[in-house]
Amino acid sequence: MNAISSERRFGWHFGSGVWFVLDAALAAVAVYAAYGVSAALGRDINDGMSLRHLTSFECAMLAGAALAVTAHVLELHDPLMRRRQFWLLWQRAMAAAAIALAISALVTGGVLYRQVGRLILLQTFLYLPPLMVLARWLVWRGSSRCKWRVWVVEDGQAQTGLQSMIDRFGLSMELLKDVPGGETGKMELAQKCRQMEINEIVIARRSREKWGGDFGFMACLDCGVRVSDFSHFVERNFLQVAVEHIDEDWFLALDLRLIYSLYQPFKRGLDVGVALAGLVVSAPLLLLAALAIYLEDRGTVFYGQVRVGRLKKPFTIWKLRTMRKDAEAAGAQWAVEDDLRATRVGRILRRSRVDELPQFWNVLRGDMSLVGPRPERPEFVEKLGESIPFYAQRHLVKPGLTGWAQINYPYGASVEDARNKLRYDLYYLKHASPGLDGQIILRTMGVLMRGAR
Asked: Which 3 state secondary structure label does DSSP give 432?
């Protein structure tokens, strides 16, 4: 055996971009199947219609685009979506298909002034969810039969942490324990890797410090084994940063595209446009919410609170008041998911996130952006900065209405929750781009649709 088999090399770990294209293709297949069945039954799709019917190609392109976006909103493209949750998968696939076809029908009639047959739509809806579920089942089954074999070099703590993440997300990886020791020669190490079909060697920071940086793994690279730094491995596979395994050099390698490239003017323009539109569209809802807040306890409607912005500059964030007037009589406190200090109206506003709508004003002023780490209070920033390494560096970019941590980690109110959210905030700091911002916005829409906080 001269190299690891190609089946082992294929990781079956699809990113969101692959699923985006694949779902669009599945929608096209379902549409063509619907047109084919209708033709085989001898039905004239234009019969009795006042408007010209879409061709199969036009319908396939429209349905494919709509499904790709809708499935992304419902997190069906999340590469870390847990395996074996088939009922949840069926629910989201059916919802994505129904919404995508409804959008297609509305665009067809309201924008294109064309028509698409009800039988075509019904057939497409019947074919599409099974195709989506089947595609994911095949990928998950293939990944479970060809697990990616990983050796974390001489770091039991790192291996334990990595195993817990693999179990949490259900990724098809196998961590190996019976592996060569540090005394093994370079060629013997490579031979052992071939024999054990190791796909990837992961080197933790403690291992580098212990071995002085001389691992002798170049021979493993030559035989097709991937060799990765632990922090890079976690970033690539779990879309977060292992805070405990980075140092100052990690930040020196950043190019901070949010600050130093053309992306910043583009991002600012998008912020202003969306914030203006958001304030105009949400004005009636804000008025109704403000009236409900006032009628409940005759208190103030809006609530201003000092938060820490980019480069630790303080600013006042604005929200609709959701808590009692004496909520912080004892000083600053963490806000929790089912906070007992919330009023009846406040609980509804918090659940729907309507209380966050006034923050469009902060975006318009430039204090915040649409996407970025959520701003924290100065009292908590000082406390968390003492407990969590590199917590202050999350302020290198503007805070946001939504962020990578908000869509990947549940509502938290503790130092440990802040540490876990920092993993995602630092990932955004490094990988910020128009594509990632778009993904965050789409998935935030899905969170709002589910009513999650």
From this structure: coil
How does residue 3 score in pLDDT terms, banded at 50, 70 and 90? very low
Name beta bridge partners: 152. 202
Pairing of strands 302-308, 314-320: antiparallel
For 292-315, write each residue's pLDDT tens digit: 999 988 888 998 999 999 999 999
Q: What pLDDT, on the 0 to 100 scale, is given for residue 8?
A: 46
Q: Which pLDDT tens digit goes with each residue over 265-278? A: 889 999 999 999 99
d(CA 343, CA 362) in angstroms, rounded, equals 24
Q: Say whether both 119 and 163 belong to one domain.
A: no
Task: Collapse the DSSP code of 199 into the 3-class scheme (helix H, G, I; strand E, B; otherwise coil) and give the result.
Answer: coil
- Say what the pLDDT of residue 1 is: 41
**Same domain flag for 444 and 312:** yes
Q: How far apart are CA 297 and CA 256, in angstroms?
A: 46
How many domains, the chain? 3
- Residues of the domain holding 179: 147-238
Last residue of a domain, one of 105, 123, 144: 144
Q: Which helix (H) or strand (E) holds 327?
A: none
**Per-residue pLDDT averaged across 78-88, rounded?**
71
Same domain, 125 and 166: no
- Of 88, 90, 95, give the one whose Cα is nearest residue 72: 95
* pLDDT for 64 beyond 90: yes
Asked if 368 and 359 count as a contact pair (C-beta separation under 8 A), the reply is: yes
Per-residue confidence (pLDDT) for residue 340, from 0 to 100: 67
Q: Are residues 353 and 433 in the same domain?
A: yes
Same domain, 119 and 178: no
CB 428 within 8 A of CB 239: no
Range from 76-90, 118-132, 227-241, 297-311 carrying the lowest mean pLDDT: 76-90
Decide: 403 and 440 in contact? Cβ < 8 Å: yes
Residue indicated by tokens 């490579």:
190
What pLDDT was estimated at residue 328? 62
- Single-letter residue type at 335: A
Q: Give the span between the Cα atoms of 25 and 302, in whole angstroms.
A: 47
Residues 134, 174, single domain; the answer is no
